[in-house]
Amino acid sequence: MTLAAVKLLTGVRALAARPVWLAGAAVMLTAVCYGGYRLTRHAVEWLYAYPLITTIAPAIVKRSLEGFFLVLMAAALFSVLVASVGTLYGADDLELLLAQPVSGARVFALKVAELFVNAAALPVAFVLPVLAGVGAALGAPPSYYAVAPLAAAALFALPVTLGALLALVLVRFSPPGRVKEVATAVSIAVAAAALLALRALRPEQLTRITAANEAAFEAFLQTFARLDLGWMPPAWAANAAWAALEGRLHPGLAALLAVAAAGLVTVAALARRAYRRGWVRSLDAAPAPKARPAKPAPAWERALTARLGPLGAAVAKDARVYLRDAQQWSQTLILLALGGAYFLSLASVPVPTREFRDLIGALNVAFVSFLVAGVSLRAAYPLVSLEGKAVWLARVQPLRARDLVVGKFLFALPPTLALAVALGAGAARALEVSSVLAVCAPFAAACSALAMTGLAVGLGAAHPRFDHSHPNELALTPGAVAYMALAVAYSASTAYLLARPALRAVTAAAAPAYWRTVEGAAALGGVAALSAAAAALALAYGVRQLSGREGAW
Amino acid sequence: MLEIRDLTKTYGRRKAVDRLTLHARAGEVLALLGPNGAGKTTAIRCVVGLARPSGGEIVVAGHDAARDPLAARAATGYVPDRAWFYPKLTARELLRYVAGVRRLGDATARIEALLERFRLAAHADTLTEAYSHGMRQRLAFCVALLGDPQLFIADEPMVGLDVQGHRDVKRLLRELAAAGKAVVITTHTLAVAEEVADRIAVVDRGRLTAVGAMDELRAQAGGVTGGLEDVYLALTEGRAA
Fold first, then answer.
1. Could you give the ipTM of this predicted complex?
2. Single pTM value for the model
3. Distance, in angstroms, between B207 CA and closest chain A CA?
């Protein structure tokens, strides 16, 4: 059996072992792909039917493809950096494979292929329905359906090459034992910067070009069509696909395939060389031990343990581990970037009248809830799973599952609460909403933080995955999907409960005394009760499920 | 100190432990021997709370492990065969965490003494992610002993230790017994069992085959003469230890 066949068999067995996850993922992927196909086909047909711009429609479709390729290339680069450290230099099976009577070149060729599949499979899956939609809309010949995907796949070899080369630099020069942390931090920092940069471009300006202003719309499209990305690889792929639409082969395809193949071969050769020369020792080397005089526990840790007992000790431990682990704290950077992008977005919305400000303010209450749901998915849901292989230690101590779960909740709640209230109150203040909404927004945000943190920690405790390899994968588990479904249901329920007060604020400018009326108090009380119940029930469910787990919890 | 009565643990149709009855007295070292898959580790995992028994009863220091698990765990110190810790904590921080969950108050002096005894003082402020297997194993001993447990259980305690570590652990087990603790170990190293154990229990296919001091084991093996190896092979019908 060849190395590739062994790898393939391992992957198939891993998927078969999680049939529910596999079925759910397949359904979701199919739905997304079909949606992408229909949307693309409809958009291209609409564009070609638009009377004023038939002559530039092909250029617009082509530029759109180039842009799409560029965005997905950036996404692949983001994920490949961390993946290449683990796959090319730190994989568990690497030493085993190299000890076999197989040439090192074949082993690293397999590893590069594995990296390529890991990094490029999802982007290619997103590209295929778009290419199919374009092909179906424009009546492409059969050869198009072979050439266009080939060009797209070759395109994604480039970020794989770049990411692997960057990883090599990190492996060579990072402090001992810190490579994965540095790679994660670099990836997250790049993603956060890209998010803020994209936001700073103020894409909402495009929405001001309306169909009613057709001259401006056409001028915009003309400008867009003239954008020249010809020197960039995404344009090579788009050109190759476009030529295939007309039944031709574009020289860009050959260039793309040659660069992709050269990049992958170079990366495999360099990885092999790096491994041979011992550059990768920084992956597992440990700093030299230093004997230091014993210091007492810091005051905050002593206070937590003294006040809360075992619960406090668990919270103190979680805080320490979270702040030390780059894979955990770096998630905070991207969340802060999200918050920053949200504020920038609100600041750029034109607010000509009080009614409009209040309308945006009311919508902000719902948006904050969704944002907090996303934050909790990344920051709170994984907390129980992050006990990892050390979970046995908690299990054999006189520590109740309830203390462990509630400890995670207490640890996650303050930052989530601070973020939610800052977003709710800050946005209300920035928009200068009416006093009714000024009370409602931070209150609803605080309730949402309580509910989302409880839901996330509870569901995370009910469906832990202690054998995960990276915290990112926890957000894709069935438990995480269930959490998101419940979070959306909670947000919808809150929006329903606050709809009437929001309507009053928008239409009648109700006074702050409104919240002292039966109707106002009932709305706020309902939201508070719903939030407390959601958090308490989810936490109780998590404790029960975790207590009933066999083995390492 | 430890009473195991009719302990049964099944995984699907497979019985890993089958009506095992055993006890460990205060002041003695009890060694569990048996072939791979005999059910030794499963029985121990049931005692320390890592597995839920399918039947039977476990009593630790007078506390029923099913009805009062926290008290049973508070009375137990456990060293697993492969110890994993929070990689981003140092040994000192980890021991402070354990002291906190065990409500030991200010355990600084005891923590420092344990770190010193297990030759980890120089590495006490190093993150445990940088520890070798042997260092992790020694830290597991510190964790298990921190609460001064009445029952000390170690699953393959010698694995990963150097020569010095072997000698330290053997001495420790005898010291604990001398201090009135009940000590239960599993091991495949017959010489260790012979050297430190007061009684030896042989477990095979989830059942207790024989238990007692060496003379009692010889008698139960049908009067086999010779060392523990001969007795063991006779009791387990030649299956590898």
1. 0.89
2. 0.73
3. 21
